[in-house]
Each structure stands twice: as structure tokens, then as C-alpha cells.
Input
Amino acid sequence: MAKAEMKNEKVKIRLFKDNARYKGDVFVGVNGRSYLIRRGDEVEVPAEVAEVLEHSAAQDEAAAHNGAL
Output
């Protein structure tokens, strides 16, 4: 997908929420714009924000697996 198309596209996401580590809102900054995303609610965000969150989750998973070795 082209960057211009991604910038205009909106996607629905829901961030995991619990009462321990994953209870606070999540801050995301992309290209000088700031977003504060509430956990546990379905929200609509620009596709580029969803992509940043996906990359962050992948990095967290990779770090968890590397630490378990």
C-alpha cells in the first residue's frame, strides 16, 4: 500500500486491557502527530498508527522470546 493511501485509511483496533500491566492508555507518535489510545475499547485510527502498534507488539514478543533462551 502506498504511504499516501495508508495515511488516509482508517482501521479499527482494540488494545488488550487487564488490571495489571496492560491497563493504561497507549501513546503513539507518528510524523509529528500524537495519539492516546484507550485500552479495551474498539477505536478507529489511521492505518499508520496501527502499523506502529503492530511493530511494537512484534518487538515485545521478540524480546520476550530472546530473554527466555
Summary: The helical segments are 3-8, 47-67. The mean pLDDT is 89. The longest strand covers residues 10-14.
